[in-house]
Structure formats: C-alpha cells, structure tokens
Amino acid sequence: MHMLLVMIGGVVLLGLFLLFGYLWGGTRPDLVFAAKVFIPVWLAVAVANMWIGVAKAGYSVREELPILLLVFSVPAAVAALLIWRLAR
Questions:
Q1: 57: which DSSP letter?
Q2: Which region holds residue 58: left if phi is over 0, alpha if psi is between -120 and 50, else beta?
C-alpha cells in the first residue's frame, strides 16, 4: 500500500511541476522542461524513500532495490510519455 501511495505521490508531484511550468511560461517547451526537471528530482525522492526503508524500517538494500526501481519508474515513465507527446 505504501508503495502505491508513493507512486501516486510521484504523479501528483509531476502534476505540480507541470502546473508551475504552465504558470511560468505556458508554452509546450516550458512544460517539457518542467517534466524533464521532474525526473532527477523524483529520483532523489525515490532514493530518499529507499534510504528510509533501509535505515528506519530495517529492510536490506537488496529488498528495497526492486521497490526503488518500481517507485521511480512509474512516475518517470508518465513524465517520459508526456515529454514525448508534448515535444511533437
């Protein structure tokens, strides 16, 4: 359940990045830039989530690594799809 909530939070965060891209420029290149900036920020958030799982919850890195990949990849894939669609 926590994993699903984190992924939903990532998609919501992407929406906030797109909102700020729209508010600061409103053109397609601005939205593409906002989505591109989201990806490394989301990677940092996903790694922080993994670190909390390892340091606080007691999981091993080996147990948390597949979760990190899934938690990062779903919102990043949505961002990549939006970048592809908006860059056309």
A1: S
A2: left
CB 22 within 8 A of CB 31: yes
User: How many whole angstroms from its chain centre is CA 50?
Assistant: 14
**Over the range 63-81, which residues count as b (16 or more CB within 10 Å of their CB) and which as e?**
ebeebbeebbebbbebbee
Per-residue pLDDT of the chain (88 residues; tens, 9 = 90+): 999 999 999 999 999 999 999 999 889 999 999 999 999 999 999 999 999 999 998 899 999 999 999 999 999 999 999 999 998 8
**Rounded to whole angstroms, how far apart are CA atoms 30 and 79?**
14
**54 Cβ contact list (under 8 Å, min separation 6):** 60, 61, 64
Structure tokens at 46: 């996903």
